[in-house]
Amino acid sequence: MHSLSYLLTVVLLCLSCTQVGTQTVPPKPKALTATNLQKLRWIEGSWRGSGDKQAAFFERYRFENDTTLAVDSLEGDKVTDTTLFVLKDGEFGGGSEGSRWVATSLDENSITFEPVTKARNSFSWRRETKDSWKAVLTWPATKDKPAGERVYQMERWPRQ
User: 57: pLDDT confidence band, cut at 50, 70 and 90?
Assistant: First the structure.
């Protein structure tokens, strides 16, 4: 009986060790205030997005107040979906369909979000000019797929 107990302990120890590499460390959110979010005001407006093998898409970014950024998906003039990013208790985050991301860095030209719940990819919004920016999505490797990146070019729409 003693050897069975020992074997069970070894098996459980081995299983727990193999899981260590698959666990994810929660991101460290950047402590932000409503004043900090003013740095992100450059993203306000309507945008046409395009990317590799991606049909054009349209989004509108608007601050509902000093602590809430709404991102509307558009088809024509119709809003088909809205995702909210909200500053709460010093964390700026948001998501949809059960997924959630939190901001881990913010400066005058970019913001980066890391996954918190039901998501694996990170993304950043990087200003290029007053009328263009890039959305960069990155995801880690899995046992079946390599790490990847997808870049979407965003241009102010309609062009002014």
Answer: very high
| Token representation of residue 49 | 């997005």
pTM of the predicted structure, to 2 decimals? 0.82
Q: Model confidence over 106-158: pLDDT tens digits?
A: 999 999 999 999 999 999 999 999 999 999 999 999 999 999 999 999 999 98
- Distance linking the first and last C-alpha atoms of the chain: 80
Cα–Cα–Cα angle for 104, 107, 111, rounded to 5 degrees: 45
d(CA 80, CA 74): 6
- CA separation for the pair 3, 6 (Å, rounded): 5
Residue pair 118/142 in contact by the 8 Å Cβ criterion: no
One-letter amino acid at 73 equals S
CA 9 from chain centre, in angstroms, equals 40
Determine contact, residues 120/140, Cβ cutoff 8 Å.
yes
